[in-house]
Amino acid sequence: MVYSMTYVVENLNVSAKTLRFYEEQGILPNISRDEKGRRVYNKQQLEWISFIRCLKETGMPLSQIKAYKELYELGNTTFLTREEMLIQHKLEVQKKIDESFKHLEEINYKLAMYELQKDEVMKNPNHNFKCHGLETTIKN
Q1: Which of 64, 54, 71 is nearest to 25 (CA)?
Q2: What's the rounded Cα separation, in Å, for the pair 6 and 34?
Q3: Helix (H, G, I), strand (E, B), or coil: what is residue 132?
Q4: Contact 9, 19 (CB under 8 A)
Q5: Where are the alpha helices (DSSP H) in the chain?
Q6: Each residue of 85-96: pLDDT tens digit?
Q7: Distance separating alpha carbons of residues 139 and 137, to the nearest angstrom
Q8: What's the mean pLDDT in 2-7?
Q9: CB–CB of 53/61 below 8 Å?
Q10: SS3 for 108?
Q11: Are 56 and 62 a contacting pair, CB within 8 Å?
Q12: Which one-letter DSSP state was computed for residue 41?
């Protein structure tokens, strides 16, 4: 079964421009065309597009994605190298998640401090309230 570019765009949340770019860069090779010259994709290519998007959305650069694809095309002799690439990327993604969680905790703390002081600020808008080391002056 083959799928049109329209199908891919609508169902995989990727733009036609991006698909053409991936093809031009060799990240998405061997795209067939129908009798009218329009790009068509097979199931394996749809799976690869989904994987490219996953890697891209987690911050992997296109150059690394292309290197992964090239290793994949070399077959099982590159299995361990590809696995190591994904392990390293996973560690980088986990580090970013941990950092984002830390930042989220700081924001939640700040919001909790605001909640605790909200009634006082509303009653006394000209008073300087300190919250997490920052001083705020509310002026009329």
Answers
A1: 64
A2: 13
A3: coil
A4: yes
A5: 5-12, 16-24, 43-57, 62-73, 79-123
A6: 999 999 999 999
A7: 6
A8: 95
A9: no
A10: helix
A11: yes
A12: E
